[in-house]
Specification:
The chain is of the alpha/beta class and 325 residues long. The protein has helices at 11-19, 53-68, 86-99, 115-123, 137-142, 154-166, 185-201, 215-228, 240-252, 268-275, 287-303; strands at 23-29, 42-49, 74-80, 103-106, 127-131, 149-151, 174-179, 204-210, 232-237, 260-262, 281-284, 312-313, 317-320. The strands form 3 sheets. The chain has a 7-stranded mixed β-sheet, with helices on both faces. Strands 8-7-9-10 form a 4-stranded parallel β-sheet, with helices on both faces. Strand 9 (232-237), helix 9 and strand 10 form a beta-alpha-beta unit. Helix 2 (53-68) packs across helix 11, helix 6 packs parallel to helix 7 (185-201) and helix 8 (215-228) crosses helix 9 (240-252).
């Protein structure tokens, strides 16, 4: 396990991170180096797109936590401009390693493609904690690599949303699914939860396509689904950005009053849409705490280099108009 290194905080280095092509920097939280001050670990938090409210909220929660515990660790946050830019996220891991972080907490854009870069980080003595989207357990086992996952049960969360929707439908009703990235574990698990809930309730899944987590893609795909299959009674979206895209699609084809839509993440726009009756339900992963859970896990591992950490399941709760009252 590598030891903490004393570092001077150089403003030009911070500017270089911000200017790197293909990524966006939320903030750098760090105190000026003082030779007399206790040595602190530096944690790098690597997100998906900080343009996505869910991940921006995660980053804000992490920054607030560091500010409240500034005597315990320093934090640097980076995110993508486009959460599908997997190669850029791989580069961010490499840059964090080069900058001398002691730990990396990462919400990977892909469940397999990030593993080689993270393996090299661990080889360099860096603690790695996986949040939000689980890295492939099969590939980790093949690589004999232990990286703890700190996050919710996405399948269970999606199933609870689907089951709530099913209570508003009749057996045999047609539904459609807007999937996330098919290379992401959380995308696959949410689809599996939706599938299970619909099948158990006797619904007919008419169409299921990936909108790649994006609102505009979801709008286009949902519009096509509804035009081609007017019998669709509900759309299950694997995140709230896609659910908002489905809301726009429903409006464009005149289905705002009768189409039921559910999502996942509980971003502010979706919560308001639930209050307005445009979305039926979503799942709350408590974005403001999710990165913090990962940081706390990393700090435990840094405090005891000989320790190991099992996966940590974090809360996921059903959100409806009733729970928002």
């Amino acid at each position: 396990m590598k030891r903490y290194k004393k570092r001077m905080v150089i403003p030009l280095l911070v500017m270089a991170f911000v200017m790197l092509a293909g990524c966006s920097s939320k903030t750098t939280s760090s105190s000026q180096a003082d030779p007399s001050s206790p040595e602190k670990p530096k944690i790098g938090l690597i997100m998906k797109s900080l343009a996505n409210e869910f991940f921006s909220t995660m980053a804000d929660g992490a920054v607030a936590h560091q500010a409240a515990h500034s005597d315990q660790y320093d934090l640097h946050v980076e995110g993508l401009k486009d959460e599908r830019d997997i190669s850029r996220q791989v580069a961010l891991v490499q840059e964090m390693v080069a900058s001398g972080v002691d730990a990396i907490v990462i919400a990977p854009a892909d469940s397999k493609a990030l593993i080689p870069a993270l393996r090299r980080a661990k080889k360099d003595g860096i603690v790695v904690v996986n949040i939000d989207n689980r890295l492939s357990p099969e590939m980790l086992e093949e690589e004999s690599l232990q990286i703890p996952f700190v996050g919710p049960d996405n399948k269970a969360g999606a199933k609870s949303v689907g089951a709530y929707l099913a209570n508003k439908l009749q057996p045999g009703d047609g539904v459609a699914i807007l999937e996330g990235l098919q290379t992401s574990d959380n995308g696959r698990m949410r689809k599996a939860g939706f599938d299970e809930a619909m099948n158990e309730a006797g619904m007919k899944i008419i169409d299921s396509q990936s909108a790649q987590w994006e609102m505009s893609n979801a709008n286009t795909i949902a519009s096509s689904m509804l035009s081609e299959h007017p019998e669709i009674k509900a759309i299950l979206a694997a995140n709230d950005s896609m659910a908002m895209g489905a809301v726009a699609a429903a409006k464009s084809v005149g289905r705002s009053d009768d189409l039921l839509i559910v999502g996942f993440d509980n971003i502010d726009a979706a919560a308001q849409a639930i209050r307005d009756g445009k979305i039926l339900a979503t799942a709350d992963q408590h974005a403001d705490k999710l990165a913090v859970f990962g940081i706390e896990a990393a700090l435990k591992l840094l405090a005891d280099p000989n320790s190991t950490l099992s996966d940590v399941e974090t809360p996921v709760d059903l959100v409806t108009a009733e729970t928002l009252q």
